[in-house]
Specification:
With about 230 residues, the chain is mainly α. It has 9 helices and no strands. The protein starts with 7 loop residues before the first helix and ends with a helix.
Length: about 230
């Protein structure tokens, strides 16, 4: 039992763990940004009257929401290198695991952000859209200038909560040998023979970060509800 809580190795390995956490935060932040932007476009397509766009967005969201994230990650790890090497003549020795992870997480999360954003748009009174049309705005102008600013205010807590889930899911990058925080903790534990302790330590760090952000999200939600 003492070995499990012998976290002294974590202090010695802190530079490696910090490096892994930076990778985790990079994947999380970029995937959130791209996911929200692409998810917003998908939500607008699904709510538009253009049949082709609506069908495309519906198919995209349903496909990505029906496939496990780990499988998507592995697919893009196998596909992205081939595409980049054929289009950009990237040398085989170039490590593109980070690019593969970013593409996979961004496209996958966009499907979930799309549903959150679509619900947020639908929560805005239809009168707002009618008023925008009365002022001569197009559908896209009305969405971008009138509806979305109001919708995003309502969606902030849900978007942040999905970001927390994404932060936790980044631990799956171990499947493509990308050294994130959990991956680094696992490697250090295997190297030093303290694997149980490092896994517990990594879990504690994830808990503290996610719990803290969750409490901040709840406070923000109460403030926005006033």
């Amino acid at each position: 039992m003492g070995e499990i809580f012998a976290w002294g190795g974590a202090i010695e390995a802190m530079p490696l763990l910090v490096k892994g956490m930076i990778t985790t935060l990079q994947v999380t932040a970029l995937a959130v940004i791209v996911g929200i932007v692409w998810g917003t476009l998908l939500a607008m397509m699904r709510l538009s009257g253009v049949t082709v766009l609506k069908w495309f967005a519906d198919l995209y969201v349903n496909v990505f929401r029906s496939i496990p994230l780990l499988m998507v990650l592995l697919w893009f790890f196998l596909i992205v290198p081939q595409v980049l090497r054929s289009l950009l003549d990237v040398p085989p020795t170039w490590d593109i695991r980070m690019v593969s992870a970013l593409v996979a997480f961004s496209l996958f999360e966009a499907a979930y952000y799309s549903e959150i954003i679509r619900a947020g748009i639908q929560s805005v009174s239809r009168g707002q859209m009618s008023a925008a049309f009365a002022l001569g705005m197009s559908y896209w102008q009305a969405m971008g200038l009138v509806v979305l600013p109001q919708a995003f205010r309502n969606m902030v807590p849900l978007l942040l909560t999905q970001g927390i889930i994404l932060f936790q899911d980044t631990s799956l990058v171990y499947a493509i040998a990308l050294s994130d925080f959990f991956g680094m903790a696992y490697q250090v534990g295997q190297r030093d023979g303290t694997l149980p302790a490092m896994i517990v330590f990594a879990g504690a760090v994830y808990f503290v970060i996610c719990f803290t952000v969750s409490m901040l999200v709840k406070r923000l939600q109460k403030r926005l509800a006033k």
